[in-house]
């Protein structure tokens, strides 16, 4: 696994590299002391994994992920602060390691990464994978409420950490699933990954506008008269795919 270590402390980077020597599948191809350096290295190496510090001079780790949102590899956060744990998983991080890093916890984190990469590769290479289409119905349970909803009625899937919120009619239940795993099951002809946090149902797009830095802003039709219209930003890189998908 091509890996980049991003941490403003040289000693912390060196210690992590030393620990990673026990894991032959991890190939540290580069290291960065800040987000700006990391962006260039990520573009150059297209890594499978980032070990990412949160508190850094300039842009922090979360801001870095916002910038590279369309090409984010697997992420393991490394930090001396535990107050960011919940937010880290909102960014679909696979693990959150506290400094000083314990070798056994590091092994657990790497096992998670290996399992996730294998799962993704298996799904992408399996010609028999059956996508869920807009005509499929799914069972949704949130607390004491249950729904049996046709996917064509779901206009938006929104990442909420380890959960995904479904928007249909005037309902917004949550399911215990990551947006990445859900994306792998949805028919790409009907459902489009707009950005790190959202998958939109293309049948519900009402309006498309140019947006900042080459992105697009799409307006989704409301589920009910009382439901406000939802505006979702399509990031610059995804906007290119969106235009190709929607063009003649």
TrEMBL record:
What organism is recorded for this protein? Lacihabitans soyangensis
Entry-linked PANTHER family: STAGE 0 SPORULATION PROTEIN A HOMOLOG (PTHR37299:SF1), TRANSCRIPTIONAL REGULATOR-RELATED (PTHR37299)
**What's one GO MF term for it?**
phosphorelay response regulator activity
Query: What Pfam family does this protein match (any one)?
Result: LytTR
Q: What is this protein called?
A: DNA-binding response regulator
Q: Which domain of life does the UniProt lineage start with?
A: Bacteria
Q: Which UniProt keywords apply?
A: DNA-binding, Phosphoprotein
Q: Which InterPro entries match?
A: CheY-like_superfamily, LytR-like, LytTR_DNA-bd_dom, Sig_transdc_resp-reg_receiver
Q: Where is the Response regulatory domain?
A: 2-114
